[in-house]
């Protein structure tokens, strides 16, 4: 396996693998997520910006995993402590390559990237129904910080 930073040449394969992710999150939460295509411009921006990256994993010429990460800062509100952090927007490993340590290695790569960017911590979100991802993140040292709740409005 080769772990690397994506270039714009990788976008077609990134887009195909990202589609696996969008299908999966749509299956888990169809009321909130569409099974839709991401725009090429989004991937280009993540690759070309100095404050974001797409980390990739290839088996030969085939893309089998990716993580989209971005350097962010806490909002400039009086109640927030000021922090610079790495936000992992998405992490996906193609189905046939799961449970082989690829996601754990990607998380290590994210931590190294965050360290190089002088981020204080890494933050990510995970769907409650995605138990495998939740367990992976906890097993690699991630802690729960906040829970988002929602309630549908009853139509009377």
From TrEMBL:
Gene Ontology MF, one: acyltransferase activity, transferring groups other than amino-acyl groups
Domain N-acetyltransferase residue range list: 1-156
Highest taxon of source: Bacteria
The entry's keywords: Acyltransferase, Transferase
UniProt key word Repressor: no
Stated name of the protein: N-acetyltransferase domain-containing protein
């Amino acid at each position: 396996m080769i772990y690397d930073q994506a270039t714009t040449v990788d976008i077609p394969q990134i887009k195909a693998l990202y589609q696996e992710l969008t299908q999966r999150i749509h299956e888990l939460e169809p009321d909130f997520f569409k099974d839709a295509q991401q725009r090429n411009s989004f991937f280009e921006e993540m690759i070309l910006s100095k404050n974001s990256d797409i980390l990739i994993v290839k088996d030969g010429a085939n893309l089998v995993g990716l993580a989209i990460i971005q350097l962010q800062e806490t909002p400039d509100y009086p109640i927030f402590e000021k922090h610079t952090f790495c936000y992992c927007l998405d992490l996906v490993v193609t189905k046939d390559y799961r449970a082989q340590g690829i996601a754990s290695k990607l998380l290590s790569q994210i931590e190294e990237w965050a360290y190089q960017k002088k981020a204080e911590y890494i933050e990510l979100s995970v769907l409650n129904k995605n138990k495998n991802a939740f367990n992976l993140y906890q097993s690699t040292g991630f802690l729960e910080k906040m829970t988002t709740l929602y309630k549908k409005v009853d139509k009377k």
